[in-house]
Design brief:
- It is a single chain.
- This protein has a four-stranded antiparallel sheet with strand order 1-4-2-3, with helices on one face.
- Helices cover 37% and strands 29% of the residues.
- It has a single domain, classed as 2-Layer Sandwich (Histidine-containing Protein, Chain: A).
- Helix 1 packs antiparallel against helix 3.
- It is built from three helices and four strands, in the order E-H-E-E-H-E-H.
- With 86 residues, the chain is an alpha+beta fold.
Length: 86
């Protein structure tokens, strides 16, 4: 399992547009489970509504994890996504 921690910088946090893009990116690695954790709550990044319901706002720290056959590629792509979009 690979993971990284990221502090959200986007003014609106994880709202509809970036959540949709994140979900799509997570689904592009079908052999890898991608999760997002805030505090004690963890959801699959591919589950758009659950991701949006986490209420992740600017300044919140999240942990993104990838576990599976493509975890190295997935975690690299996810880190880039977070740095460029959130």
């Amino acid at each position: 399992m690979k993971e990284f921690t990221y502090t959200i910088e986007d003014e609106l946090g994880i709202h509809a547009r970036p959540a949709g893009l994140l979900s799509k990116l997570a689904k592009s690695f079908p052999d890898t489970l991608v999760t997002v954790t805030k505090g004690d709550k963890t959801v699959k990044a591919s589950q758009l509504m659950k991701l949006m319901n986490m209420g992740i706002k600017r300044g919140d720290e999240v942990t993104v994890a990838a576990e599976g056959a493509e975890e190295d590629m997935a975690i690299a792509a996810l880190r880039t996504f977070f740095e460029e979009n959130l």
